[in-house]
Specification:
The chain is an all-alpha fold. It is built from 12 helices and no strands. The protein has helices at residues 4-18, 26-30, 33-52, 56-80, 85-99, 101-104, 112-127, 141-154, 163-178, 184-204, 209-233, 243-258. Keywords: Hydrolase.
Length: 259
C-alpha cells in the first residue's frame, strides 16, 4: 500500500505538472489565488454536506478535493516565491504545538473547558490588535455574525442571558416592518439587524446558524418536492394551482413530519 507521504508527494507533483507553463493544462496555468478561492470555499461546503448526510464514502472524495485546493494554493505561492507546501505544513504544525502546551509541553493536562479558554487566549495573543480582527470576510454572513458576537462576548460585551435577545428580535422585526416605506436600502439595513440578532440567539442556544439554515433549506426543498409530486398526480403544476391548494398539501406534509 502506498504511504500517505508517497501519495502527497504524487499530488504535489501532479499539481506542479498541471501548472507548468509549457506542458501543463492551459486552464490550470491561468488560474490565480482569486479565481481559485471560490472553488476552495465550495469544496469546504461539500465536505460539510457529506458529513451532514453521513456519506462516509463520499467524504473521502470531498476531503481529497479540499486537499487539492490547499495544494493548488501552495503551488501558486511557490511559483510566486511566497512559500511552498512544506512551509505551510510547518506553520500549522508549529501553531498546533504552541496552542497545546499541555500536550507537547510541560503544562498540566486541562479539562476541555480550560483548554478552550487557553486556546482562545493564545489565539488572541497571536492576533494582537482589536478583538474582532481576523474574522474572515469570506465567511457566510450568518456564520461571521456568530463569530463576531462570540468574540465580543469573550470580553464581556454580551447579553446577560437569552431572554433579552428574544425581545431584541421582536424589536428588530417591528423595525423591518416600519421601514418598508422608507426605501430598499433602509429595509435592507433593518433586515440585516434582524438577521444579526437571530444569529446571536442561535449562539446563545448553542446552535450553528449556518447549519440550522441549511437544514431548513433542505426541509423546504423536500416538502415542496412532495407538494409538486402530489399536484402532478392531479395533473397540474404549481403554477396551475391555487395557493390554498398548495398550502393544504404543505400542511399535510408538515403534519406528517411532526407525527
Amino acid at each position: 500500500m502506498p504511504s500517505p507521504t508517497d501519495e502527497l508527494s504524487r499530488l504535489l507533483a501532479i499539481m506542479a505538472r498541471l501548472r507548468d507553463p509549457e506542458t501543463g493544462c492551459a486552464w490550470d496555468v491561468e488560474q490565480t489565488f482569486a479565481t481559485i478561492a471560490p472553488y476552495t470555499i465550495e469544496e469546504a461546503y461539500e465536505v460539510a454536506d457529506a458529513i451532514q448526510k453521513e456519506d462516509w464514502a463520499g467524504l473521502k472524495g470531498e476531503l481529497g478535493d479540499l486537499l487539492l485546493q490547499a495544494v493548488y494554493h501552495a503551488q501558486m505561492a511557490k511559483e510566486a516565491g511566497y512559500f511552498d507546501f512544506g512551509d505551510m505544513a510547518k506553520a500549522v504544525s508549529d501553531k498546533m504545538v504552541a496552542r497545546h502546551p499541555h500536550v507537547f509541553g510541560s503544562e498540566e493536562v486541562r479539562s476541555a473547558e480550560e483548554q478552550t479558554r487557553a486556546w482562545e487566549a493564545q489565539k488572541a495573543r497571536e492576533r494582537g490588535g482589536r478583538t474582532l480582527d481576523g474574522v474572515a470576510l469570506a465567511l457566510p454572513a450568518l456564520k461571521r455574525a456568530e463569530k463576531l458576537q462570540a468574540r465580543a462576548a469573550r470580553v464581556g460585551f454580551d447579553w446577560p442571558d437569552a431572554r433579552p435577545v428574544l425581545d431584541k428580535i421582536a424589536e428588530e422585526a417591528r423595525e423591518v416592518w416600519e421601514a418598508r416605506d422608507e426605501g430598499a436600502d433602509r429595509v435592507e439595513e433593518e433586515m440585516g439587524d434582524l438577521l444579526f440578532v437571530c444569529a446571536n440567539l442561535a449562539r446563545w442556544l448553542g446552535v450553528d446558524p449556518e447549519a440550522a439554515l441549511r437544514r431548513a433549506n433542505a426541509k423546504f426543498e423536500r416538502r415542496f418536492a412532495i407538494v409538486e409530486d402530489r399536484l402532478k398526480e392531479r395533473g397540474r403544476t404549481p403554477a396551475q394551482s391555487t395557493l390554498d391548494e398548495m398550502d393544504a398539501i404543505w400542511n399535510e406534509v408538515r403534519a406528517a413530519d411532526k407525527a
